């Protein structure tokens, strides 16, 4: 690694000041950033570790929503009684991220801010219609994700929590890339108060909603309805792991399985 200054603030206010430095990077678990630094793909002059800010971690129920602090570990989301009771699909998603070491260190805020195109959490945010709360504002999931590793966050803006509305029915199905355990394709389906939402991760430059599946499932929330939707391969990724056509087929299959799972 290159040399860098290490800061561990104890408050959100101090972290915000430090993060405003254009040469600083925020450390919210480090599962991507530290690996990038080891490979010399990232060279920050300053690391701002959020691990010492107690107010950024924790899970609570607020009305018809579950609010998860940005520094809450994946393992804690997976084990949370509140999440299991309100949105079991979200707890299961968290329990399937990476391996045990990743789940013990990775955080929801770090995953969401990084916005890896094959990460699981973005699919949950988009399908459930979540809201990202930052040090400056509240951002709807539909407006937050803006492409590969790109989000609506401004320089120095930190995620403080994510609020997930409780869905009527929801499920997530992931076809894992066996080495990384990222989603080759992951599909999160949810029946919400505003209608059916379907989010796909692992398919392209970032998480996206699938309008065709949403329309079909709004009419009939069944695996058969999902099976009747032709998933277009154009625009999907094609690489050494899978062709675009293979990914398109996986979107259909994972959607069908997710609906079946949501129905119990």
TrEMBL record:
Q: Where is the FAD-binding PCMH-type domain?
A: 1-169
What domain of life? Bacteria
Q: Which Gene3D superfamilies match?
A: 3.30.465.10, CO dehydrogenase flavoprotein, C-terminal domain, Uridine Diphospho-n-acetylenolpyruvylglucosamine Reductase, domain 2
Q: Name one GO molecular function term.
A: oxidoreductase activity
Keyword terms, alphabetized: FAD, Flavoprotein, Oxidoreductase
Keyword Membrane attached: no
Matching SMART domains: CO_deh_flav_C (SM01092)
Q: Matching Pfam families, A to Z?
A: FAD_binding_5 (PF00941)
Q: What is this protein called?
A: Xanthine dehydrogenase family protein subunit M
Please give the organism. Ramlibacter albus
């Amino acid at each position: 690694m290159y040399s860098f200054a290490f800061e561990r603030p104890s408050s959100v206010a101090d972290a915000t000041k430090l993060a405003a430095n254009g040469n600083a990077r925020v450390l919210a678990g480090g599962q991507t950033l530290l690996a990038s630094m080891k490979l010399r793909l990232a060279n920050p002059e300053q690391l701002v570790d959020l691990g010492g800010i107690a107010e950024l971690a924790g899970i609570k129920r607020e009305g018809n929503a579950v609010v998860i602090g940005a520094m809450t570990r994946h393992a804690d989301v997976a084990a949370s009684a509140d999440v299991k009771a309100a949105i079991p699909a979200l707890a299961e998603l968290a329990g399937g991220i990476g391996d045990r070491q990743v789940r013990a260190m990775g955080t929801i805020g770090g995953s969401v801010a990084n916005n890896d195109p094959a990460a699981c959490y973005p699919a949950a945010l988009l399908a459930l219609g979540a809201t990202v709360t930052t040090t400056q504002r509240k951002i709807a999931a539909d407006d937050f994700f803006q492409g590969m590793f790109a989000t609506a966050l401004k320089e120095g803006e930190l995620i403080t929590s994510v609020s997930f509305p409780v869905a009527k029915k929801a499920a997530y199905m992931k076809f894992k890339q066996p080495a990384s355990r990222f989603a080759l394709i992951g599909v999160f389906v949810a029946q919400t108060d505003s209608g059916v939402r379907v989010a796909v991760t692992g398919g392209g430059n970032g998480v996206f909603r699938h309008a065709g599946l949403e329309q079909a499932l709004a009419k009939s929330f069944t695996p058969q309805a999902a099976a009747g939707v032709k998933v277009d391969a154009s625009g999907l990724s094609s690489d050494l792991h899978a062709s675009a056509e293979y990914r398109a087929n996986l979107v259909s299959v994972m959607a069908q399985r997710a609906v079946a799972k949501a129905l119990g």
